[in-house]
Design brief:
The chain is an all-alpha fold. The chain is 73% helix and 0% strand.
Length: 262
């Protein structure tokens, strides 16, 4: 059986992209299960962060091995200085989408935005951001870019990323079409950031967005359990993300659009 699988993957090289996705799903389930064992928000954050760091190492090691088999370069995880770019993009988009969401959907403000920020969330969101970016961007996007070019890489890091959020139902999250569309747009944005600026830029953008999302929902006065899903799937959020993607593609150096990672 193992021999047949290896032969199949050898002839259909794109099947290798399933490996980091499977690792992501397994690590995410483990993270959610272990974090749910305690009610302490800081303990949950420590568990999620620790699994995120371990997951980052495991996924990147696996992707490097796959890349060597496919004879393409290893993922770009050395550009630490581009964390600032990811944070800047993530903050700008978070503030823009949050204020528009508050204006269109918010009730009378019951708290200030800064009071709604949950400090433990910054720690807890390290886990999902590290695991998902290692799998989807350093894994799927990088491998597809190396095999077929950046446009296929961007496609592989967007729609599948949105569809994978359906697995959120396993953890009691409401997942509708609007959320899939919203996370598809965010997946495209993160894929562009990875291809242009490297892993840490995509990670930083993902992390700061997730960490502030609940604060914007609370600031808008929305108390329903699926408030974050409403925020991330809102039409105005999708529009802002798409415009940001267009700007990142058309403005500045475009050499990354003309080259593979080989």
């Amino acid at each position: 059986m193992a021999g047949r699988l290896a032969k199949l993957v050898g002839t259909k090289r794109y099947l290798w992209i399933l490996v980091p996705v499977i690792l992501m799903l397994a690590l995410t389930i483990a993270m959610e299960f272990l974090a749910s064992e305690t009610d302490n928000v800081w303990a949950r954050g420590i568990v999620a962060g620790a699994i995120g760091v371990v997951g980052l190492f495991v996924i990147l090691t696996t992707v490097r091995w796959i890349a060597s088999r496919l004879q393409i370069s290893a993922p770009n995880v050395t550009a630490w200085h581009n964390v600032a770019i990811g944070l800047a993009v993530g903050l700008l988009l978070s503030v823009t989408c949050g204020l528009v969401f508050r204006f269109l959907h918010g009730d009378s403000a019951t708290t200030t935005f800064f009071a709604a920020i949950q400090p433990a969330g910054f720690l807890r969101n390290l886990g999902p951001a590290l695991i998902e970016e290692a799998s989807m961007r350093a894994g799927v996007v990088h491998l597809l870019n190396g095999l077929y070019g950046p446009w296929v890489g961007m496609a592989g890091g967007s729609l599948p990323f949105g569809l994978l959020h359906v697995f959120g139902r396993l953890f009691g999250n409401e997942v509708g079409v609007s959320l899939v569309i919203g996370t598809t747009a965010s997946g495209l944005l993160l894929s562009i950031l990875y291809l242009r600026f490297g892993f840490w830029a995509a990670f930083a953008c993902h992390w700061i967005w997730n960490s502030l999302a609940s604060a914007w929902v609370m600031y808008a006065g929305i108390t329903s359990q699926n408030g974050i899903q409403q925020f991330e799937g809102a039409p105005e959020t999708v529009i802002v993300l798409v415009v940001a993607c267009a700007c990142l593609i058309t403005i500045g150096d475009k050499r990354w659009l003309r080259s593979h990672t080989e």
